[in-house]
Amino acid sequence: MHDPAALARNIQTWGRELGFQQVGFAGVELGEDEAHLRDWLAKGQHGAMDYMARHGDKRSRPDELVPGTLRVISVRMDYGTGDDAAAWATLDDGERAYVARYALGRDYHKVLRNRLQKLCDRIAAEVGPFGYRAFVDSAPVLERALARDAGLGWIGKHSCLINKDAGSWFFLGEIYTDLPLPVSAPASAHCGTCTRCITVCPTGAIVAPYRVDARRCISYLTIELRESIPEELRPLIGNRVFGCDDCQLACPWNKFAVRSEEPDFRVRHGLDRASLVELFAWDEETFLRNTEGSAIRRAGYEGWLRNIAVALGNAEGTPEVRAALAARRGHPSGLVREHVAWAMARHAARDSQSA
User: Fold this and answer.
1) What pLDDT, in 10s, does the model give residues 94-106?
2) 120 is known to lie in a ligand binding site
3) DSSP string across 13-72
4) CATH number assigned to the domain with residue range 4-91+103-177, chosen from the 4 options 3.40.390, 3.30.1660, 3.40.109, 3.40.50
5) What Gene Ontology cellular component terms go with this record (predicted)?
6) Catalytic residue among 39, 57, 63, 137
């Protein structure tokens, strides 16, 4: 019989050796979080993300999702670039495309899942066969609530997890297990009276502290939404073509974030410097090649062009921007054509005003 406390210490050591910056252990009681989730769903603030409601209460009840679960091993892996000024500079340059920092490198799902499996294998080598399932955004899991209970950080007013020593530029992963490990002390909250994340949100998606209406969130609009982006929100999206980081960039706790040296998270294909016109010119083959192993694939090629068309409509009407839009006005996708037409009409309206 293995000593649970000693095993927990070993798991934390093995986790660090595998590239996780932090490992903690949570119980399975999430009553308050379940009530918050039910209210969020009842208000329709999940938008078209039907999967958020599909599994009932299993999302907030780990032992129902995976019967026999006693504890959740929660891990943190940092991905910060260490250069928030460069991110702000891209947002201020209307000709460049802004891609959320987490999506600039390799798809984190694959990176974390592989490391979690190695951690499970290491545990099994120590204790023998045991019950477990590893998750990285791949099942109905309340990962931030579990990470909070595992001592990895607190849930901020923007709903992201914040760690007082590492900010919020990190990914989370979980292992549901039947091992009776000691539970970590939960993290205390330190947002205080700060509301920078709320006031900086371009679309006002953080409708109250700790409450994000996905229907207004740029990450949702550019990644999860498969339909037309509401017209009233398009001008507010600016040049953000995949995701949004404004609430994290504004968070004062991120001054403590450390640059990640994980090779898998290094920028690919110059996406941190690419122009809108350059990315809009990608054909589908180029898109698939340049997004292989990338989280950007989730938007799909059609969604990618839709998003860039909106950003081009928000950009200065240079000859290059207008030519790029004109080249796509007859695109086979009605979704793409609609957003291209909107962008061209936006430039035409500006021309009329200036005349």
Assistant:
1) 999 999 999 999 9
2) no
3) HHHHHTT-SEEEEE-S--HHHHHHHHHHHHTTTTTT-THHHHTGGGGG-HHHHSTT--EE
4) 3.40.109
5) cytoplasm
6) 137
